[in-house]
Amino acid sequence: MPQQQSTKFIESVILTLYNYASNPREEFLLLQLFSTSLRQEIMEKVENMGDIVTGQPLAVKMVVDFHRLVGYVHVIL
Question: Structural domain tally of the chain?
Answer without folding.
Answer: 1
